[in-house]
Amino acid sequence: MTKATEVTGDLSPGVIPRSPIAKTRLFFKLHWHRGAPGQATPDWVLNFCYSMWLAAFAFKLVGSSWDMSWHFMWLRDDLAPPHLINTVGTVIIMVLVAIHSYTGMGADRRSLRLMQIGLVVFLIAAPLDVINHRVNGLDLTAWSPSHMMLYIGTGIMQAGVIMGWLKYAKPGRARTGVLLGLWAFFLENTFFPNGQQEYGILGLRAWERGAPEAEPELLNFAANQIGHPVDQVAVEYFTMPIDDWVYPLWGIGVMALIFALARHTTGFRWAGTTVAAVYLGYRLVMWPLLLGMGFPVSVVPFYLLAVGLAVDLAFRIGRGHPLLTAGAGALLVTAFGYGMLWVQSQFRPWILGDAHTESAPPVAYWTAAVCLAGVGALWAAAGPGTRAVSSLLAKRREKTTLPAA
C-alpha cells in the first residue's frame, strides 16, 4: 500500500503537509519524473500547483501596479523595488512552467504550449524593454511596443493557466472561485495600459495646480525629448500622450469581452460583476497604500462594475440564444459603460467643485457607436468558436477519464 501511494501520490488529506515548502519537497519526492502532457494529477498536486500560479500572478500584479506609479514620479528604475517584486512572480512562473513541461502534470498539450509561448514572449520582451530604455531613454507610455509585448506574453500565459484549470479541476465552488480569480488577473493585465491615462490626468492636474508629482529630473527628461522647456506642452506629452478615443474603447469594449468569456467559462451568473468587483477591490486597496508611501495615485475605474453587470444581465436576457445575448450585451455594455463613465467624470464638479483634479480621464464619447458595433459583432462571432472549444474540451475529458473500478 505504501509503495502504491508513493507511485500515485494519492495521499489522504491528513498526510498532505500545509507548508508550501513541505508540499514542494513531497511533490519532488513523489512526482519528479518525465511525462507527456496530460499525465494523471492527484488533486492535492493540482490544487497546490494552481495556488502557486495565483501567488505568482499576485506578485506580478503588485509589482506592476507600483511600477506604473513609480514611473510617474521617478526617472530612475534600475533595481527598483517594483521590478524586484515583479521578478519574484516571474521566477515562480518559470519554475511552474518547467514543472508542467517536465512532468506533464496539471496541463494538457494545448494549455502547456500557451504557458510556454507566453513565458518565452515575456522573457524576450523584458530585455528588449531594457535595451529600449538604454538606447532611447525612458519609455514614457504604457502603450509602447516593448511594454505591449510584456502584457501579451503575460496574457498568453494566463490563458494557458485558465485552460489547464478549466480542464482538470473538479466542478465545484473551488473550481469556480479559482477561475474567477484567474479571470480577474487576466482582466488586470489587459486593462493595465489604460493606467497611462488614469495616472496621467492626475499628474497633469497636479502640475497645473503647482504641486507636480514627478521629480524635476523626470520632467526635464520628458521636456528634452521634444526639445521643449518644462511647460504645459511638455507635461502633457509626458502625462497624456494617448488619444482620448483609446481609453473608453479599451476600458469598456475590450473589458466587456473578457467579462463575457469569464461568464461563459465559469457558468456563474454573476461572473462579470464579481470579476469587476475583485479587480476594483484591489485598486481600492492599492490607492491608499501608494498615497501613504508618497507615490502618485490614479483615477479608479468604477465604471467597470457597470460593464460587468451589463454582461451578466445580457446572459440572463439571452438565455442560451447566442445572437440575442450578443445583441443585448452590446446595447447594455454601451449604455451602462458609457453612462457610468460619464457619471464618474461628473464626480469632480458635483462633489469637489472647482478643485483642480479629475475623477475620470478625458473621453471621446463618439466612440460609443464604435463600441456598440464592435462588441456586438465580436461577441456574436465568438459564439460558434466558444461552442466548438467547449465541445472539444468535453470530448477530450471523456477520453482522459478512466472508468470506475
TrEMBL record:
- Keyword Transmembrane helix set for record: yes
Question: Which lineage do the record's taxonomy fields give for this organism?
Answer: Bacteria, Bacillati, Actinomycetota, Actinomycetes, Pseudonocardiales
Q: Which UniProt keywords apply?
A: Membrane, Transmembrane, Transmembrane helix
Kindly indicate whether the keyword Membrane belongs to this entry: yes
Residue ranges of the TM segments = 44-63, 83-99, 111-128, 148-166, 245-265, 285-311, 323-343, 363-382
The species this protein was found in:
Amycolatopsis orientalis (Nocardia orientalis)
Q: Which residues form a coiled coil?
A: none
- This protein is called Uncharacterized protein
